[in-house]
Amino acid sequence: MVARAWVLLLGVVLVTAAAKSATAAPLRRPVAVPFGRNYVPTWAFDHIKYYNGGSQIELYLDKYTGTGFQSKGNYLFGHFSMDIKLVPGDSAGTVTAFYLSSQNSEHDEIDFEFLGNRSGQPYILQTNVFTGGQGNREQRIYLWFDPTIAFHTYSVLWNLYQIVFFVDDVPIRVFKNCKELGVRFPFYQPMKIYSSLWNADDWATRGGLEKTDWSKAPFVAAYRSFHVDGCEASVEARFCATQGLRWWDQKEFQDLDSFQYRRLLEIRQKYTIYNYCTDRSRYPTMPPECIRDHDI
């Protein structure tokens, strides 16, 4: 009888959780726009190629240079996403990056960095968050698919309450606003959006043990769906004029819902290979933001 009651109770809990996740607001579907509407190349213009009327581009890396692009505007909070197909084959030593960064010495930054691999080895996705010039908050995961075969969507949701990294709408990392714990959060510095393909064989693959094989060059990463839905601001702006009015600023986006939390836990358990929060050689005392995160 007790066992049956426990099963019934468990069923109620699961149904309640399912109902909550079903009613939670989904992420808005990004609208694909041509590259030139929101972005401009930043260097080595001859290493960028345009396709389909500018709705898709490719970045090229050879032994002479890599290349990259940046947004035309600066943004203070928002939702930003891009479809990326990573460098195929032997990409050891290369880094494909998609990130947001402010333009000052105490910079804020939100990073996706895709670390190249030797053929047959999995790609590593490294994320990082800088606040007030302080970084060293790396987390690394293996992806659950081959990111070189097809395009996948990589997104950042950034509002007053949290920064969430998504891969194909699956949350892989959350950085909560912990200002009451003395942890700085990106509040006041607008950021540009950047992407780049560059050589980092001094650290990117197995800590620099695997060097870039330039006989495999050029290395090519492809991009499309250059989505920006943020509060555009000047570099000196200290607040968002539409604060509280945009979809990504509403209550349902101030935290993950129960379904998203379960997906996040699955990523941590199955795919995480490094988390600065648990690295006692670097941090004998757990960083304060990790204490809260540890309860997820």
From TrEMBL:
The active site is at E109, E113. Residues 33-223 form the GH16 domain. The keyword Disulfide bond applies. Contains at least one intrachain disulfide bond essential for its enzymatic activity. GO terms for cellular component: apoplast. It is found in: Secreted, Cell wall; Secreted, Extracellular space, Apoplast. GO terms for molecular function: hydrolase activity, hydrolyzing O-glycosyl compounds; xyloglucan:xyloglucosyl transferase activity. It is an enzyme of class 2 (transferase). This is Xyloglucan endotransglucosylase/hydrolase. It comes from Trapa natans.
